[in-house]
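G., the chain you wanted modeled:
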Amino acid sequence: MSIKVTCIGHIKTSVGRETVVFEREEMNASELIEALREMGAADPNMGFTKFNTLLVVNGASAFTAAAHDKKLQSGDDVFLLPFSHGG
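Predicted structure as tokens:
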């Protein structure tokens, strides 16, 4: 089984593709973010982390891995959305 991830915005640009499938039974949200960051390590402008990326799982729950390191399960469909904030 697998966990399907769809990357949006600059996350897609950094990773180099829109869809990534992890052939795993389970993984934590922070592990997923780090695996994707490793895929985009050649991008010096990569700006997504577990602190500024919103994960939407199965269209139902939204969170950042820094706030809630949820365990993702095989069959989950995850959307990664970048968000920005500042003053």
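The mean pLDDT is 90.

Shout if anything looks off.
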